User: What shape does this take?
Amino acid sequence: MAAFPESRISSPEAYLAMERISPVKHEYLNGNIFQMAGASVEHGIITVNISSTINVQFKGRECNVFASDMRVFIPAIGFYTYPDIVAVCGKREMADDDHFDNLLNPTVIVEVLSKSTAQYDTGRKLDHYRSIDSLQHYLMVWQDVKRALLYSRRDDDWSLQDFIGGEPVIEMPAINCKLSMDEIYDKVDLRVK
Assistant: This one.
């Protein structure tokens, strides 16, 4: 999310009507819309690496993974957003019956961090995401260094794991998936800044 809103809009319904025809994605919060930034090559590679690795592990299971285009709605705060990756196991719950484009019950959310989004994704957005009752894991992955943070819910408490380097394996038991740091960073040029 940009530091300042692009503009104000009268209602969530007006936002959704605009968003469904817009060639550019926007987040919405409290009447403000924020244009989402474009992604770097490294960001794209990491997003594909994670989503494809999870998707392979979902084979034959009632689970889905979505990359970049699944809008998530957080009713508790009226926030519409597009996480980099969303995974849901079990029945997908949608906010509306007409369009089926606002997911309510993500199990896992992944954000790939950039210099411009890291502070927001590890701070305010983290708070927004942790207000989602169904969310069990929030994974944040850096694109310029081999590092990931995983927040996991156990009852009403959240634990944090910090993964650095090439060997660690990230486990997300809520979706019965594992990601190695080497899988996440396959073909990523960490020298690019």
Q: What stands out?
A: The two ends are 21 Å apart (CA to CA). The chain has a mean pLDDT of 90. The chain has two domains: 1-36, 40-74+81-184.
